[in-house]
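Worked example 2:
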Amino acid sequence: MPPDTIPKEFVSLYESERARTLRTRAIWYCAIAVGYLLLKLPRGIMGALASERFIGPWAQVVSDAAILLLHAGTLVYLAWRARTRESLVHVMSWVIVGACIIAIIATPLSDNTNLIKDALPVSEPRAAFLQGIATLVAVFFIHFVSTWLVNLSPKEGLELILPILAVFAGVTLFITDTTFVLKLTLIGMAPLAGLPGFVWSWWLHRSFNERFMAREASRRYHDVTRELTDARTVHEALFPRPITTGPVRVEYRYEPAQQIGGDFVFIHPAFPAPTPLSDAGVPQRLTTLSDLPEQEAPAASECGALEGIRPISIVLIDVTGHGFTAALAVNRLFGELERTFALAPESRPGQVLATLNHFTGALLATKGIYATAICMRAEPVVEAGVVVGVEVRWANAGHPAALLLPRAGFARRLDATAPILGMLDPPVFDPGELRVRLAPGDSILAYSDGAIELEGEGGELLGVEGFTRMVEACRRSEAAGEGLCDRLMREIEPLRTRSGKRDDTLLVRVTAAEGVAPV
């Protein structure tokens, strides 16, 4: 089983990666062992033939041959086809335990003076004790090399060394011909032979887990980043194009706190037909649809020949929170707005907010998601064939107060007329629709709470009052070719950065244009 530090969604990848790594390392280990023993075995045979003793030299040859066959068979088994991680662990455990048991049995019968002086296969207590130490050296060598090359977990390494120690203790107690005190000494020293390999297994396994998690985290980060970029593209595709022609102009700027957020603006109709100007910049009076540029003329079903440019509905919504959850809620609200205006294109702001409140309460509030919204319906006012202003019907459901910006004069607040969407049941919810008249050059600035929940230069909360002062300052210094929303966002951005960009920020300005004639 993978360790608890591996998330559940990575378990399958972790198991396959461990199996692949374990198989590769096990093949290398067996290949190195086979190569080493193929070089050692001929010399051992030649030495045994030249030796006057029989048991010692030939015991070493037989043990080397047995270990060689064990590793060669395992190499074929591993190279034949891929195995599961559990199968690989079992096979390698048996190989390492088998090699160590062969060494435990054969080493006391061999001449080990190359390792320890006087470690000879003779029946004498001191020599037997030294042979026991030589056996532990052989076990250490086999165990450490195998765990150094093969990536086993600490638990697997512990399960591997325990049977080896048990066999060594049994051989020492019942076969080794030495004193009982020396036998106990050998048994007490036995864990030291497996300790380095166990520590190495733990470190190697931890390094593998860290590399695996770092690689997977990096891969997931790139995947999430790419998905966020794609999601932002889809999310921002919901936003309409600004309206830069006609009697009603709409500009906006949006900066989410993260890649995507829960603020958005909806305009219906999305692409109103503009009123062209003459070469002298004077608005041309249009009497029929044929007078409109062909590529921008609205369909006859949407605009009668003598009706004039249709009213424009603007809805600004701020869903609680930000990120993916808010963006998903935005998509659902956007779909509800499209459905609402498709069924009733002339819906008034109060009707729109009542519909959104019912939708939010039924489908989003049950999941702890609410929203604030301000809906405006801007209708050009025509007198004697000339647009003399724009009448705006509006309703505000818990949204920050919009600002009425006269062409000449100070800003005036348009406060909320209803609670936030989803809080009250439809029979109780009253949108409180109001109206205001915009003269040419007047505008209404709506914004989300991300524009006011910021810290000023002195650490105080900006609030509606501070934001209003900022708006007035930007209006006085408004540069040609730069919209008010652009200028405001440029002023707000340092405050958002200082506050850690805690919320999404959306600015929407609806302006009654000057010098525009109706259709």
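The chain has two domains: 8-221, 238-512. The first helix runs from residue 11 to 50.
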